[in-house]
Design a protein that fits this description.
Layout: H1 2-16, H2 20-52, H3 69-74, H4 85-89, H5 93-125, H6 129-149, H7 159-168, H8 172-178, H9 180-203
Helix pairs in contact: 2-5, 2-6, 5-6, 5-7, 6-9
Length: about 210
């Protein structure tokens, strides 16, 4: 195990050109930015969809929590600021469901995940290992958002999943099937193709050396 960690350390340094301490700092910064990118892609997808459907006047308006270190580091407390109550009250539950689903489907599926794979491909072609690593972590953050909603929040009665179930008249099991199946396919593809290829190309780690 010690030999494996040493090999990973030497590989990271040789492939990126950074010393190990610099690599660690860059990694932390990349994880934070990747999470923020996936988070805001998700959150902004809600108000933009609501704006396009006529339920919100300003698509750029989010609810920003009182600024604290926790909010800055993890974006906790920031949300879409879309009032779903009048949408449901006016009998447009499907609109509310579409707005709720936009965060995961559009924000993380069409925007952050797709852009992360495109960015990784460009960085790899240009041999920019640092950028390739960043876009890899953005892929990870996008997939984490999928899992955070399906299956983690599928059986809750509030939030995005609750609005989807109420608006479409679906049971949690239907949501699990409709949204969970594509998420599961992407996760399997990530584990079998993206992650091994990235470890091999960026850090020359294959097989047992990845453990």
């Amino acid at each position: 195990m010690a030999h494996t960690h040493a090999a990973a350390k030497e590989s990271a340094q040789s492939r990126t050109g950074w010393s190990w301490p610099v690599f660690g700092v860059v990694l932390i910064l990349q994880l934070w930015v990747a999470h923020a990118f996936a988070f805001f892609s998700h959150e902004y997808a809600h108000p933009f969809t609501a704006w396009l459907m006529g339920w919100k006047s300003n698509p750029l308006a989010l609810y920003y929590a009182h600024p604290t270190l926790v909010v800055f580091l993890a974006q906790l407390g920031i949300n879409q600021d879309v009032n779903e109550a009048p949408i449901f009250a006016n009998g447009h539950g499907r609109d509310a469901a579409i707005i709720a689903a936009a965060g995961m489907v559009i924000g993380n599926g069409l925007i952050s995940f797709s852009l992360s794979r495109f960015g990784y491909a460009v960085a790899e072609r240009r041999n920019h290992k640092g950028w390739a690593m960043f876009f890899y972590w953005t892929t990870v953050a996008s997939l984490a958002n999928f899992i955070d909603y399906v299956p983690v929040r599928t059986f809750t009665s509030d939030g995005d999943m609750g609005s989807i179930e109420r608006g479409f008249g679906w049971s949690p099991w239907i949501v699990l099937l409709v949204l969970g199946l594509p998420a599961a396919i992407l996760l399997i593809y990530f584990l079998l193709r993206i992650e091994p290829a990235t470890m091999s190309r960026l850090f020359q780690m294959t097989g047992p050396n990845r453990l």
